[in-house]
Specification:
alpha/beta; 7 strands; globular
Length: about 230
């Protein structure tokens, strides 16, 4: 939320500490504040580069990533410019896609202590394009997660954002298995219930990007389920 305040960041961090979430994801300008609020906890600070369309120039994205790491971010979500895939497998399109992947991989090798995740906005790609970008990312050997959505991406002709789907997770899982890659899948966007989360997990996603209040609700649902059983 671009209008979030320091109080909002504090509430997010407190919830993350209480429920032991993997990380909190904030805009780059809030990294320092979030890191201070999370000091002494095991919760990491994540930020997103070129949110939410990924269309900034490579140099800008690289500069933004470096600055975020300098402020204390330990996880970087890089929004891949999915428009580069529009002409795939045209050679010009492939060259532009490969160039962006190479840039990300170069940073990942320079900063191996950072958890690097690439958001590919699956709703904007066809199945062949999803497999192609997953293969390129897996081949780098240094990008730890392929992520399904920013939560804001919409398919052509549709106004409602579309996030993670079981079909997309299975496509990525298949590619990763074929390439014997250690890259993992992060299902994000539109995850609203425990049942949906478990279905995505069964399809091959071990990690999730979920809005704070929804994530807290899912944890409560899971706790109630355990108590009942």
């Amino acid at each position: 939320n671009p209008s979030v305040t320091a109080d909002g960041i504090y509430e997010l961090c407190e919830a993350a500490k209480k429920l032991n979430f993997a990380s909190v994801c904030v805009r780059p300008n809030w990294v320092v504040v979030a890191k201070a609020f999370l000091a002494g906890s095991g919760v990491k600070v994540c930020t997103v580069i070129s949110f939410h369309e990924g269309t900034d120039a490579h140099e800008s994205k690289i500069s933004e990533a470096r600055a975020a790491i300098g402020r204390g971010a330990t996880e970087i979500d890089w929004v891949f410019d999915h428009r580069l895939m529009s002409g795939y497998p045209d050679q010009d399109s492939l060259a532009m896609v490969t160039s962006e992947v190479t840039e990300i991989a170069g940073l990942a090798r320079e900063f191996p202590e950072i958890v690097w995740k690439v958001i590919v906005e699956t709703c904007a790609l066809d199945d062949a394009q999803k497999r192609a970008i997953c293969e390129l990312l897996a081949a780098t050997g240094v990008i730890l997660f392929i992520k399904t959505s920013t939560g804001y991406g919409t398919p052509c002709g549709v106004d409602v954002p579309k996030g993670a789907t079981i079909t997309d997770v299975k496509i990525f899982a298949g590619v990763i298995a074929e390439h014997w890659s250690s890259m993992q899948i992060m299902a994000s966007g539109g995850v609203r219930s425990l049942g949906q989360l478990l279905a995505l997990r069964a399809a091959g996603a071990p990690r999730f990007g979920i809005e704070r209040d929804v994530a807290m609700s899912i944890v409560q649902e899971f706790s109630a389920h355990i108590i009942i059983r």
